[in-house]
Design a protein that fits this description.
The complex is a heterodimer of chains A (253) and B (411). Helix content of chain A is 50%, strand content 15%. In chain A, strands 1-2-3-4-5-6-7-8 form an eight-stranded parallel β-barrel, surrounded by eight helices. Chain A has one domain: Alpha-Beta Barrel (TIM Barrel). By secondary structure, chain B is α/β, with parallel strands linked by helices. Chain B has two domains: 156 residues, 3-Layer(aba) Sandwich (Rossmann fold), CATH 3.40.50; 212 residues, Rossmann fold (3-Layer(aba) Sandwich). Chain B contains 15 helices and 14 strands. In chain B, strands 3-4-14-9-10-13 form a six-stranded mixed beta sheet, with helices on both faces. Chain B has a four-stranded parallel beta sheet with strand order 7-6-5-8, with helices on both faces. In chain B, strand 11 and strand 12 form a beta hairpin. The complex binds pyridoxal-5'-phosphate. The site of pyridoxal-5'-phosphate has 22 residues of chain B, from helix 5, helix 10 and helix 13. The site of pyridoxal-5'-phosphate (PLP) has 22 residues of chain B, from helix 5, helix 10 and helix 13.
């Protein structure tokens, strides 16, 4: 399970890096090359987003990537094949990220069974709070997969504990209000929030939304276990191509 | 786990990102408090009497009744609300809640523009800042409403993502909300979305059904046999139906947008066609027009306000229990029905509302003269003048627009 992997890795590394791609944006081959480059640059965990037509938690950059993939007629089936291929080829854990409708339409139990068969380790479903997740939680447990849940700065201490009791793997701490792809100020407010998060759970903490440069990653050392780089690597990919992404991620370490 | 609050059968729920949890819980509490406070409903009724001509009349459509020679046709006149549709009922109600929550800014999505105009009006009256999200396609087809929203002081943001219509405007409003919920309330315009919106919007719109029941009993001494309403997200339908749901002898009929015909795939018929399936999106579980992967489809209707992929979870439940019957009317049938209502009765229903007329006209001749039907005229059609004039191929209108364009070009 992910937790052991993260704890083991943390012995050698002060902070781990998780990156995010939207499968099929701008096309499946580029997605594959991007994963390869990220792994070669030393990424520790990867989040593979299955595109959805209504990605309400995502800002303009990831939203546009979802749309590009769908305009190119990327299907859920192709995303699964893609995930199977990279999970087989590369030695880092892969997670699926998508919105609940994709999981629901596939069949919740079937989706978990498929993830396990294809070598994925867990999933992030940002519009599925634990109150609505009974079936999903049971299926993930059955197939020994990690359901990753989110904390937000607006989450109360007691609710953090409640969320933690359903989560496994790690907790995804959303750095601030708003959607993905907007600047975050890495300041004492964030310290306080991460401190609250630590107190609420013994799971590792990942921080995402707005991590853009090495200084941000350095800021998080000793405060979080994983820095999540999402939108920024998509921006770099668009501007500087796969080679640019490799350099960018390597520079974060 | 026991069924979570906000469910109607298997439909509804609260599927939102964690960041909104505290906000939506706060809204639930304010709504619950208001619901159990008789003073609140009184305040709401008084406001609607003073500001929006409530109670709106229930008009006997004598000429249409003679013309069809079937059941008596009565029309509930939501078109006579201030700003021209039932949308104002919901908006003023939510506005009162915004005051209780001490928020200073409101945002809303809009399709036809009616809900946007209503929200901008409420914001002007109550002194709130206001931003309206509207699909780019709808901005183009509903310019007069955009004009009024801007005059009312709202910022209108054309949404260029997705299919650039109502559902995309909802997504953008949600994105705004997750960043600004401390100051901002999202005034959802229909009985959809995450709990408590379906129940809350229905509650405010139930003022329509409460009045209608009282009016028909006073006028005829009887309950109606059938009540017809158009169904976009479902708020005007839930509003009028909720007056009669307990009276099982009253048949409730919801008319969805048949667009260019069910067979063409270019429609927005979720409940009266086999094309929709159960899904979870935009915060709630209901029937959606989606593909096998769960990607939402493009929808079509001549009426922007009905052009939506989802439908109220309460209506999905009422469809499954059989309490409400659903039908659809095509763009062409709707234009014909609208022309007839205008010519025979001097009523000018909105294109959305004309769906309810079309559905009723199809059936009323087969009913008996002692029977009664009520059509909910959810809004007035003036706003649709450009679309209607095009659909009717009105040559004089075309000349007028050309001349007007000539004047602008010359100046
Ligand atoms: C006049 C009118 N009727 C009906 C609708 C459809 O909405 P609902 O189904 O929520 O009543 C709209 C939506 O914009 C409208 O403007």
């Amino acid at each position: 399970m992910l937790r052991d992997y993260i704890e083991k890795k943390r012995v050698e590394k002060k902070i781990l890096i998780m990156t995010h791609i939207v499968i099929g944006a701008p096309d499946l081959e580029t997605s594959y090359q991007t994963v390869k480059a990220m792994v070669e640059a030393g990424v520790d965990i990867m989040e593979l987003q299955i595109p959805f037509s209504e990605p309400v938690a995502d800002g303009p950059v990831i939203l546009a990537a979802n749309q590009t993939a769908l305009d190119r007629k990327v299907t859920v089936g192709q995303c699964i094949d893609f995930a199977e291929r990279v999970a087989k080829e590369f030695p880092v854990p892969f997670l699926f990220m998508s919105y609940y409708n994709i999981v629901f339409k596939y069949g919740v139990n079937k989706f978990a069974e498929m993830m396990s068969a294809k070598g994925l380790k867990g999933a992030i479903v940002p519009d599925l709070p634990h109150e609505e997740a009974a079936q999903y939680l049971a299926a993930m447990k059955k197939y020994h997969l990690d359901p990753i849940f989110l904390y937000a700065p607006t989450t109360s201490d007691s609710r953090m504990k409640e969320i933690s009791s359903h989560a496994s793997g790690f907790i995804y701490c959303v750095a601030r209000k708003g959607v993905t792809g907007v600047d975050t100020s890495f300041s004492s407010d964030l310290d306080e929030y991460l401190q609250r998060a630590h107190t609420s759970t013994d799971l590792p903490l990942a921080l995402g939304f707005g991590v853009q440069e090495k200084a941000d990653v350095d800021f998080l050392k000793g405060k979080a276990d994983i820095a999540i780089i999402g939108t920024q690597s998509l921006r770099v990919l668009a501007e500087k191509g796969v080679a640019g992404v490799k350099k960018f991620i390597a520079g974060m370490q | 786990m026991a069924a979570h609050k906000g469910y109607f059968g298997e439909f509804g729920g609260q599927f939102l990102p964690e960041i909104l949890h505290a906000t939506i819980t706060g809204l639930e509490q304010v709504f619950e408090t208001a619901k159990h406070d008789p003073g609140f409903w009184k305040e709401y009724e008084t406001l609607m009497q003073n500001y929006s001509c409530r109670p709106t009349p229930l008009t006997f459509a004598e000429n249409l009744t003679k013309y069809f020679n079937g059941a008596q046709i009565w029309v509930k006149r939501e078109d006579l609300n201030h700003t021209g549709s039932h949308k104002l009922n919901n908006v003023m109600g939510q506005g009162l809640l915004v005051k209780r929550m001490k928020k200073t800014r409101v945002i809303a999505e809009t399709g036809a523009g009616q809900h946007g105009v209503a929200t901008a009006t409420m914001a002007a009256k109550f002194g709130f800042e206001c931003t309206i999200y509207m699909g780019e396609v709808d901005v183009l087809r509903q310019r007069p409403n955009v004009f009024w929203m801007e005059r009312l002081g709202a910022t209108v943001v054309p949404v260029k993502t997705g299919s650039r219509i109502l559902k995309d405007a909802i997504n953008e409003a949600l994105r705004d909300w997750v960043g600004n919920m401390d100051t901002t309330h999202y005034v959802l315009g229909t009985a959809c979305g995450a709990h408590p919106f379906p129940e809350m919007v229905t509650w405010f719109q139930s003022i329509v059904g409460i009045e209608t029941k009282k009016q028909i009993l006073e006028a005829t001494g009887k309950l109606p046999d059938r009540v017809y309403a158009c169904v976009g997200g479902g708020s005007n339908a839930m509003g009028i139906f909720s007056g009669f749901l307990k009276d099982t002898a009253v048949e409730c009929v919801g008319i969805e947008a048949g667009g260019r015909g069910i067979a063409t795939g270019e429609h927005a018929t979720r409940l009266a066609s086999p094309d929709a399936s159960i899904g979870v999106s935009q915060g709630y579980k209901t029937f959606f027009l989606q593909d096998d992967d769960g990607q939402m489809k493009e929808t079509h209707s001549v009426a922007a306000g009905l052009d939506y992929v989802g439908v109220s979870p309460i209506l999905s439940h009422l469809k499954e229990t059989g309490r409400v019957r659903f039908e659809s009317a095509t763009d062409a049938e709707v234009i014909t029905a609208l022309s007839l209502a205008v010519k025979k009765e001097g009523l000018i229903p909105a294109l959305e509302s004309s769906h309810a007329f079309a559905g009723a006209f199809r059936e009323v001749s087969q009913m008996a003269p002692e029977q009664i039907i009520i059509i909910n005229q959810s809004g007035r059609g003036d706003k649709d003048i450009f679309t209607i004039a095009d659909a009717l191929h009105d040559p004089k209108w075309r000349d007028y627009i050309k001349d007007k364009a000539g004047e602008y070009n010359a100046s």
